[in-house]
Amino acid sequence: MSNGDSEGVDEETTRRRIADHLRDEDATPSELAEALDLHLRSVYASLSHVSRSVEAGDERLLVVPPECSNCGFSGFDDPLGRPSRCPSCKSERIEEPVLRLD
Ligand SMILES: [Zn+2]
């Protein structure tokens, strides 16, 4: 697949590849983007769909919340919302969430 300008045409395949990868190993969104040759925003855009589609089976998409590298804060309202700044200490050094299929 080298047709790089048609991103999003096959979202269902993208979701399935994400789910397949997470069955093999836990990954952050960046690791998924790297492993599957996707844009990071495509990974984020797919995650809520992946979550819903695996729940139709007997699985769940678990999210280990992102954490602030500066103060350790991890109580983000929306762990998949790509927080850019820590509400506690205002640091922008936020670790990525880790995704896991269970
Ligand atoms: Zn912080």
Automatic annotation (TrEMBL):
It comes from the Archaea. Residues 65-101 form the PF0610-like rubredoxin-like zinc beta-ribbon C-terminal domain. Residues 1-30 are annotated as: Disordered. Residues 12-26 have a biased composition (Basic and acidic residues). Residues 13-62 form the PF0610-like winged HTH N-terminal domain. Signal peptide: none annotated. InterPro entries: PF0610-like (IPR038767), PF0610-like_wHTH_N (IPR049159), PF0610-like_Zn_ribbon_C (IPR057022), WH_DNA-bd_sf (IPR036390). This is Transcriptional regulator. It comes from Halorutilus salinus.
